[in-house]
Design brief:
73% of the residues lie in helices and 0% in strands. By secondary structure, it is mainly α. It is elongated and about 95 Å long.
Length: 142
């Protein structure tokens, strides 16, 4: 009579059925993540015109999920980046591990102000410079 062991089976060998199951689960998970990313991008585009900043973060999160799980989307994003580097650069900055959200927002705000307002009506850069001078004066007074 052979002894009965309650220990889990050894993982030294891998069965073909285990490999197949792992591959099926991986593909299924990738497709589900692509669907989720697509839904987030769509929701971000729908919510973007509404008041509040929720549209852009949803779009960026959806884009992150899609780009991490789709080689074709990554290739397309690289092509777009080469064709339109100024347009894609803010998106790339938001896709980094620690995105500089405030800086990206400020740069885009200045870009829109430059496009929309004539030079004499632009106020953001001047206001920022005055604020910096006041803060430096306060720091020097301490």
């Amino acid at each position: 009579m052979s002894p009965v062991s309650l220990a889990p089976p050894s993982l030294r060998f891998v069965r073909a059925s285990d490999e197949l199951a792992r591959e099926v689960v991986t593909r299924l998970a990738r497709w589900l993540l692509l669907g989720l990313g697509g839904l987030l991008i769509l929701a971000g585009f729908i919510i973007a015109p509404l008041p509040g900043p929720l549209g852009l973060p949803l779009t960026v999160i959806g884009l992150m999920i899609v780009l991490r799980n789709s080689f074709a989307a990554r290739r397309q994003f690289v092509r777009l980046q080469r064709a339109q580097p100024k347009m894609v650069f803010p998106i790339r900055r938001l896709l980094r591990r620690e995105p500089e959200v405030v800086l990206v927002f400020w740069q885009q705000y200045l870009r829109v102000e430059r496009i929309v307002l004539p030079r004499r009506a632009r106020f953001s850069v001047k206001t920022r410079q005055k604020l910096k001078r006041k803060l430096r004066a306060r720091m020097a007074a301490r």
